[in-house]
Structures are given as structure tokens and as C-alpha cells.
Amino acid sequence: MKPLFLLIEILLILGVTIKTIEAEKHSKKQKGRNVTTQVSVNKVKQDLSNILEQGKPINIISKKENLLENKKNQHKLRRKGIRNKDLWKRNKDHLKPQAKNNSTEEGDQLFKTGIKILQQSKSQKQKAEAYIFFAKAADMGNLKAKEKMADALLFGNFGMQNITAAIQLYESLAKEGSYKAQNALGFLSSYGIGMEYNQAKALIYYTFGSAGGSMMSQMILGYRYLSGINVLQNCEVALSHYKKVADYIADKLEKSEGIPVEKVRLTERPENLSSNSEILDWDIYQYYKFLAERGDVQIQVSLGQLHLIGRKGLDQDYYKALYYFLKAAKAGSANAMAFIGKMYLEGNAAAPQNNATAFKYFSMAASKGNAIGLHGLGLLYFYGKGVPVNYAEALKYFQKAAEKGWPNAQFQLGFMYYSGSGVWKDYKLAFKYFYLASQSGQPLAIYYLAEMYATGTGVLRSCRTAVELYKGVCELGHWAESFLTAYFAYKNGDIDSSLVQYALLAEMGYEVAQSNSAFILETKKAKILEKEKMYPMALLLWNRAAIQGNAFARVKTGDYHYYGFGTKKDYHTAATHYSIAADKYHSAQAMFNLGYMYEHGLGITKDIHLARRLYDMAAQTSPDAHIPVFLALMKLQTVHLLQDILFFNFTKRWKWMTLDNTVGPYWDLFVIGLIVAVLIFLLKNRYG
User: Fold this and answer.
1) 572-573-579-584 Cα dihedral, nearest 10 degrees
2) Locations of Basic and acidic residues compositional bias (predicted)?
3) What does the pLDDT read at residue 688?
4) Is the entire prediction scored with pTM above 0.90?
């Protein structure tokens, strides 16, 4: 199927999707979730039918119209007696680029309209409508619109996932020089999703993508060279790739503060996952709104902050943020005053940029000793916004705010000493303040620390430390927003869409995405990979997450080697992973597993005393391990008692016979069952 004709099919899917979304919204209205709709479904259906009635792509029709116009012009010239073929040829050559330009301009306009709708829309229905504009623009040859449609087909936006169609469109785009298409094809080759599993080809695609300007390809290559994935491990090359992405992110962060990204772990218990602290449930949000309207100042400030930057799954809404901040400020909240000052300093739809108003609210907050207000006044004096530039005043306010532990003020102090703005350059002091701010996760402080370690400025140069710090900054990129969409897709049962999004983030080096992807693959519910590939791929991802410090992933890697999932059974390797998890991360599960292996001599030398010690440590580490440890120790004592009674005293008359030969390979489970039965019998007789 040709890519252009695929777009017509996509438009049909979008029409059905919009109807489905409308039905879902109608059912949600019964729960009090009203959604404002701006476009009628009838209008969308009419647009779809008009496109489908045309039967052929718009660019083909444009060519026919141009040809007809050329013939008319030629006929007029002949009627006037003009037989100059050169003149007609010049007219024809002139009309072709003119028609092409008109089509290009129309495609660009449609794409911009789609982007505008996507940015301003809050409902899924309105966002789906944006893709109709992208489809029309793509049909006119707009490269960016084609990329949008290919991404929608790959990631399953609005239920329109079609991996085969996405690959065809990406291959077409790659020939046109699209670096986004190169990155996507590299990702698909790396996992073998819809394409042949080929790491060498993936590396080539990523290399071309990074050369074309893909920040995601740069990040993937940085992670591969850092970890030695299908390339020779090379810290300096990894540093080069990560620095390019970190410079790009830092430039964005300097214009506006970065938005923290919620990264939900699917490996949490189901009861914790359903009420995850990273995502605010609708019912809880409604309860918070009720408390805010009742006058709870702390809740008002919290809701204002959530709406200001779009946290916990809530949409960014400056009007709601300002509304809650104003209510809290009237009640005397210094934090609310400071945040209002921040809104007016940066400027947005609800609070247009106004230095005087920002100064007023910052001063009100600072007079109450508020760190955010003090930092805000420091910014005004540092950049000369509404007041003359005064580094001495800025330094004074930054120091006061930093003493109260405000990380942004600590960063500003570090920057003043790093750049020598109003003070003598002092790299040791700069490092001190950058480090303090980085402990609270201040992204620009982390970036400048990376710069210092990369260049050896004020500290001993360390490539590895610089790369790790740059990596942390890179993970704040806009692509991390996929964590939310992937989580909601998983929660809604769209496993394939969730897996593709998590897998791409995993390829970029996100540890949480690696463990989430492995978790989904382990369930074998995904349909985009063959069943036999799932366990090996899950093992690969668990191992990558384990290397990055995930204790649960380390235990899982041990389990896969112990049971032979996705690899051959290897007790020695399993014991090695359990030992790392137990020693480095104090994992109770790893301690218990290792104790069991020492008890039975699986992959390691049998040691009953060490097994007992590990069981005891597991019980001390986690309350959940008490019952399993109790049963394991009871089994251990019972088995040794049986061995002493039944075998030790009779060795002179009979040959030694192991329990495996006499009772069977699962004798330990039999003994545990026997112990449980005896305990139940005793308890029943005691309390009966």
C-alpha cells in the first residue's frame, strides 16, 4: 500500500476515533466531567467524505487542474496567431513551480493549524481533529505533517496504531532526508518490531539520524557508547553525544524552568499502582478542589502549583493557577504571593508580563521572609527587570534565599561565582552552590556541574561523572512526556501502544522505561512481538535496568537465569545477581533466594549455616519476609532432624540415600506442606 493512499485510510480511522471519543466523553459527563467541544462530528464527517469522494490524492488533482489550465492558455495563444513554441514552453515551466508553491503553502498552513489545535486543545476529541489537518497537509507533501502521521501510526495515538503502515511512511520519509524517520527506523530495527531484528542496521540509522540533527538519536548513541551496547564502550564519545543534547535542553531551561516528569513504575503492587502518588486521581482532585473552595490555604497553593506547570497528570492551566494563588494570597500565604510574582515576571495568558506587578508581589512575599520571594527580587536586580541592574542587591537576596534552602537561589549564587557576574570568579564556591542546588534536582545546576567535570574547571576532570550528570539533564527533554501517555495507555488496556512508547524511552536510556518495558513483555500480552522473542527481550531490558541501579530488576535478572526464561538455566549467574542485589541494595527477596541456593547447593557450595544467616537477614530487612523465612527455617530444622533420626543411626547397616532419591525432587515442598498442616492442627486443638 502506498503511503499517500494510507493517509486516506487514516482519515477514516480518525473519523471513527472521534465518534468513539465523543461516546466516552458522553459517559464521563455522568460523573461530572464536562468537556467543551468546539467541532461537530458532522463537520468532520463531511470533510472526510469530501476527501474520499475525490478518490485520488489532492496533489494529483492539482496536477490535472494545472494541465487543463495550460491547455487553455495554449489554445488562446493559437487563436491569436502566436505560434512561438518557446513562449508556450516558458509559460508552462512558470506554472509548474507556481502550482507547487501554492500546494506547499497550503500544506504548511494546514500543518500550522493542526499544531495550533494540538497545543490549545484539552479534550481528546479536539486533539484527534488536529490529525485530520496533519493528514491533509501530508497528502500535499508536507514533510513535518508526514512525520506526525507516521508517529501517530507507530505509537497508536487515538487508537490508530498500524506498525506496517508506519514503517512504509518512515521509509518514504527517510528517502526525503527526515532525521526523525531515521531515528524511528533505528528503534524498530533495534527491537525487531515490524522489521528484522538488526542491531547493526539500527546503529546506522541512529548515526544518520544524529548527523541530521535528531536529539533522540544523539541521546541513544550516547547511552550505547556509555554502556557498550553493540559498540565499544567509549566514555569520551558518549560525552560528546550527551553534551549536544544537554546544551539543547539547558538552552530551553534558561528560558523557562523545566517541568518535572512523572515516571510511574509498573512494577509496583497493583493496589499502589491504582492510587499512584505520581498521578492525581480524579476523585482526589475533586476533593482537593472542595477543600480549596472551603478555604484551605495549603491546598490552594498546591493546586495552583500543579496547574502552573501541569503536574500529576493535570493540564497546564494558567487561569486556574492564578485563581488559586490569588485566593491563598488574600488569606496571607507568602508562597502564593511569590508564585503570583513569578507568573507576572515570566508572563503568560492569565498574567501578562509585568515587572512592576512582579516586584510588588515578590516584595510582599519577601517581607514575610519567604525564600521564593527573596529569590524573585534577586532575579529582578540581577537582570534589571523594572529596576536598574544591581549585582550587589541581587547577591544579597540570593544569599538570603539560599540560606533558607531554596535551590534556585543556590544555583544563581553558583552562576554568579562561575561567570564572575558582580563578584570575583571563584570556581570552588561555584561548585559548592551548584552541588547544593543539584541535591534538590535543580536541572541547570546539574548541567553546570557536568560542564565543570567535563572541562576540569574547579574540579578534577571526570568523564564518567560528567556523562552521568549530562544524562540526567538530557532526560528532562520534551520526549519524556511520553511517560504519561504510555502510562495512561497501559491503564486503559492499550498494551501495544504503551509498550512502543516505553520501549523507545528505554532505548534512550531511561531506567524506569526499561523496567516498565520488561514488565509488559513478561506478561506476554503484547501483540507487536512474537511470543518467543518476549522473554529474551525482557531479560535484556531487566539487565540494562539492573546495571543502572534498579534492585528489583537485578533480582528479576537472577530469576530469569535461575528458571531459564529467555536464556539457559545458569544457577551460578543467578546466584551472582542475587548476591549483588543483597549486598548492594539490601534486597530481602535476593537474600531469601540466595539463602535457598546455599541451602541446596545450587550453583554455589552448600552451606547450611550461611543459608540460615541469609534467611534471618531477609526477615530483619522486610516484614513481608517473616512468614516465608519462618517456614523455610522450620523446613530446614525438620529436614535435619529427619536426617539425624532416620539415616545417621543406620549408616552401618544401609547405604546413605539422599532425600531426592527416597522422597522425590520436590520433597522440600512436601515437608513445608507437612509443617503447615501440623501447625494448623495444633492451633485448631488449642483454640478449638
Assistant:
1) 160
2) 83-96
3) 57
4) no
